[in-house]
Structures are given as structure tokens and as C-alpha cells.
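Consider one such protein record:
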Amino acid sequence: MRRLLALALVACNAPKPAPPPPAAAFTWVNPRPQGNRLARAFVEGERVIVVGDAGTILVSADGGATFAAQASGTTERLTGVTGDRGGVVVVGAAGTILASTDGARWVREKSPTTVDLEAAYANGHGRIFAAGAGGTILASTDGGAAWVPLRTSSTAHLRAVAGSRSDDLYAVGERGLILHAEGDAATWQPRDSGTADDLTDVAVTKAGTVIAVGGSTIVRSTDGGKSFVATRPPGGAALLAVAASGTSVLAVGALGATLRSTDEGASFAPPETAAPASLFGAAIGGSLTVCVGGFGEILVGHGGALRPAAPGPRALLLGVSGAIAVGADGTVLRIDERVTPIVSGVAGLLTAVAAAGDEVYIVGAGGAILHGPPSGPLERQRSGSERLLSGVAIVAPGHALAVGQGGTILGTADRGATWSAVASPVARDLAAVHAEGTLAIVVGAGGTILRSDGGPFAPVASGVATADLLAVAGRAGEIWAVGRGGVALRSSDGGKSFERVASGTTLDLTGVGLDERGVTIVGDRGTVLAGAPLAPVASGTINALTHVSGRTVVGAGGTILLRSL
């Protein structure tokens, strides 16, 4: 202990505030309070702290009834959180270590490593441990201000660390690895876990029983970590996290699975589904239980059933126009001060929407076309096609175009009462269509661009025959098309010719919009580009973004962002 303290004092550096990342130009509309993936939770009395992707830190002071986002000073993925004597430590990717004395203001501490840190644990006696990639385990004796690396003689990726009241410490990771240490943790020894499955979390009960989980495996020790027995969870649940309090154990995992045990993990009740999203973290403090997961999911229980604490639909959203967003599972949402579902009458995939005036057209799988006013109700129309339709545009009141698989182009001139096939010069899949007056531009697979100015569609050279184009938008004769591999094309002559524009990314670009402020492009991993030349805009998320209309951006997990004015 004295050796560890001395090393920590030598390594101690005055804390320096983290350099602030670019302020996000967007606010979350759905889910609330945010939709980034959440990795871990920490419970202390009525205080709950949750961490996740894109530097997310959420804090509740009322037992999980409400959560507020805090400025973390980083955009790194945050993966672990623990507390000791009122202070809080958060760890994450690239060796990130944040500390707070009050759980409200965060300081980035000097880290002795740049590897990804996955978990943190405070033993309640003034020592804090962090574990991560390459067999890394760090220790701090001063509330997280200074850290020293500990020797583990392992290079495995460690996913979690926890301990008992008697200072038995356990770290778990890939290929069934379990490391055990005692006292000052100067020596870590491997233990036979009985499994080769990756272990993603570990918890220790008040009596010292150790439970580790990972995928289809539960590993348990009742003799202080001397031996472990591996079993399969009931119902074939895929487990990702575990928490313990007293004799109660809660394991959570993929597709919202939850397993409960009242006998320190000796047996588990059949799995229940608490949420549609996977759950990556669980914490228990007294009667308060908190689980966190994908797309901002937070579940809270007070001695009973777990209930959602972060409301909002989480279906994949693929299209937005005006105040209407559409997506998977027949989802149609109206976006105003709150998000309101509209009954679609469709169970399948809805891919695109066009809204103007008193009309909304929505297209999707199986040739689905819906039409109605922005407030609903929506009626399904006969498209005459069973192919996937992936783009739709309003040409004029009552007139619309829809495009899709196999070169499909459909048109209506009577508000969708009848739809007719429009001659297409290609048989490739078409992804999107833009219409403005008599001008229509269609884009699709293999760099396809088709143009019509009141007559038949004709191909236009794109110069990107190997890249699928996924979206198109225009305004006053300026046309933009974007696609896979970061492809961005611009036309200044109404789509007669296109030139490639440097996007600065190789990520797929899936949506583009133009308004009085210029072009906005969105894509994978929270990508937003805007301006001339194109430059990144901080979105505040790494969720896949799929489409943009005006100030509104939609994406995976029900993501709806509103760009600041």
C-alpha cells in the first residue's frame, strides 16, 4: 500500500481542464435527453451518473426520475464510471480519465496510457482502479488525480474490474480471462474461468461471491476466486453486464434481456425483455436499479419492475421532409415541440417521405405508397409495383414521382389516385429523386444520375461509376448528390453536368439538403458536413445519420437532431 501511494504521489500532476471539443451544432429532439449509446451507470443514494458515446455524461439527482446532460469536455467514447467519498471518476477511449469532486464539473486528468479504458472501480477505501486494452490496469489513491500502471503479465483486452469488501479484486476480459489480486493489487494472477467466451462484466456480492458474464456464459465463484464454474444462462440470453447488491444479482444483455437472481447467482429466473435496445450496463444501489444501453436507453427500478426513463421511439429513421419522419416498422413521426407517432397502417420498412403544403407522400418496401395530410390520417395507394421504393418527391400540387429497385420510376398527376410507370433508361436500383418545377433528378447504384426537364429521363455522366449514389437535393438550379465512400457531387447548371467535391471523408454519405444557408450533408458515424468548402460540423453523436431536411436530421435509433439557428 505504501509503495502504491508513493508511486502515485510521484506521478501526481496538477489537474488541467480538458480542452473543449467543438460545441455541437445540434440539439436532441428524440430520444430525450439524448440518443447516444450508453455504456455504464453508477448509483450512489439518489444520485445516478451515466456515461456513453461521444463524451456523454448524464446525471440524475432524483433517483433516475430525470436526467440532465453535463459538459464532459471530450468527444471520446466514455465506458466506465465509479465513485468514492463523493467524488466521481470516468474513463474511456484513448486513455481518457475524467474526475469530478461534485459530479457536476469535470477535469481531464493526466493518463499514463493511451489505450482504451473500459471500466473503473472504487473499493470504498480510497483506491480506484481502471482496466482496459492490452491488459492495462491503473490505480489511483487520490480520487483519480494521479494514476500508476500495475503489472498484469497479460496483453488481453480487459472489459471490467470489480472487488469485494475484503479487497479481493477481479478483472475480466477476452477469451474468458479472469485476473485476481489482493491488497495493494501489486500482483495479478490468472484464474481458470472454465470458458473461452469473452467476459464483459464482473460483480462481487456482499458475501464475496464473484459473478462474471459474457455472451452465453455465466461464470461464478464462491471461494474467493480460487475456482470458477461456468454455466449457460436460461433462455439462451446473450449477456453483457451484471450488477449485485446483497444477495440480489441482475444480468442484462442483448435485445433488452434481463435475468434476476435472489441467491447470489446460484440460479436465475427466466429472462425478461425490458427494452428493445441492447443493455450494456447495470448498477444497483440500495433499492435503486439502473440499466443503460443502446440509443440512450435508460431503465430505472425502485425495488420493482424496470421502467423507461429516457422516452422516445427508437426505430431506424430513414427519411425526413418538413415535420414528418419515417422509418422501420412502419414508423411515421410528426416533429414539433414533441415527437408524435402517426398511424401508418404499414408494418414494413418506410424509406422516404416528401411533404409540401397539405400533402405528404411516403414510400417503402413492397411498393408501399402512403398519402395524406401532415397531421394524418394516411391512406395506402395502389402503386402497381411490389418492388422496394426508396425515394419520392413532389413535383407540383397533386403531382409526385417515386423511384426504387430495378430502375423503377412511378408518377402520379392526381394526388396518387393512380400511379403509372415512367420510362427509365436504366435497370439499376434507384435511391432518391429531387423535383423542382419541370426538372427532376434521380440518383442510384453505380453512380447513376438521370435527368428530365419535362421530357423523358436521360443519363448524365457522374464520373463515379463505382460508387452508389444514395441521396440528391437541389435549390434554384444547384444540385447535390452524395453516396458511398464519401462521394459528393455538385451541379451548378440544373443537373446537366456534375463535378466532384472534396468531402474530407470516406464514410458513406446518406443524406443531403439545401436551404438558404447552403448545403448540409449527413452520413455514417454522426457525420455532418456543411459550407463551402465542405467542413465537418459537430453533431454530438456517432449514430448513423440517414437524412436531412432543413434544420432537421434523422438517423439510427430514432435519432432526431435539430440544428441551431
User: Anything to note?
Assistant: The chain has a mean pLDDT of 94.
